[in-house]
Amino acid sequence: STATATTIVAAVLLRACVSLHGYSGEGVPPMYGDFEAQRHWMEVTVNLPAERWYVHGPDNDLQYWGLDYPPLSAHFSWAVGR
Question: Residue ranges of the chain with pLDDT lower than 70?
Answer without folding.
Answer: none
